[in-house]
Amino acid sequence: MGETVFANNNIVGIGKTGNGFGLDVGYFNTASERLQINHDVDGFWSLEVFVVDNNTIELYDSHSRTSYYLEGYQRNNFDYDMVFYDNIEYLLQEYDVWEKVATSKEGLVNDFDSENYLQFYIDGNRSMFNSSVDPSGMHLDDVLWDYSGEYSLFDVYNDETLKTLTLDYDFMGNDYFELYVINDSTIELYHSSSGTVYKFKGRGFITYLKSGISQVDRKRTKTQYGTMKVVRKRKI
């Protein structure tokens, strides 16, 4: 049967799921400098293994002529937070819907005040969003989307923990926010032009590459964010 393969396929729960190792996604064996993996979703893989240095290996797939380089860490010196913030777009996509649960008393009245639901997803190579003005407390299947468009995320120069989010509405201009992650299921959007803070909770968690009813078996590609030279405007 072999040994178990664990993987962190979701950003939500990384560092906690499976004591940091992730979910059981299959099993593996080694033989003649090859790693053989039986993955629950992707099937059988036979990879050549090459040692690069003391903590790096190369896995080579001869069928696709692709090399994968893996760096080894101990859990006590692995920076899960860095991985989390470096892949923040996955967090947005790992819930069916983000529901607005609070709006700050501070801030000028603006059009985004009426938008209570957001949805983030990938369409081909485009990062898309939907927005709804339906009242809070709706069943997810009953939410009707009023607006749509593309969204973009940016790193901020000299500010590793801050991301910016721009919602570019179809035919309606855009909204710019500072994005703050409270926990694995809660974000705050600071609308810099009005000074308003909106809190959203994720609803309908999506599990990636895991067998079962909630399985989503598509692969996701890493996004390279651009960098903005802006100054954090929210006073914390």
Relevant terms:
236 residues; mainly beta; Lipocalin; 2 domains; eight-stranded antiparallel β-barrel; six-stranded antiparallel sheet; 2 helices
CATH class membership of the largest domain: Mainly Beta
Percent of residues in helical segments? under 10%
Give the total of domains. 2
Strand content: over 45%
The strands making up the biggest β-sheet line up spatially as 7-8-9-10-11-12-13-14
The radius of gyration computed from the alpha-carbon positions, rounded to a whole number of angstroms, is 20 Å
Give the structural class.
mainly beta
Termini separation comes to 53 Å
Q: List low-confidence stretches.
A: 210-218
What overall form do the CA principal axes indicate?
elongated
Counting DSSP H or I runs of 4 or more residues, the number of helices is: 2
**What do we call the CATH topology of the largest domain?**
Lipocalin
The secondary-structure element order is EEEEEEHHEEEEEEEEEEE
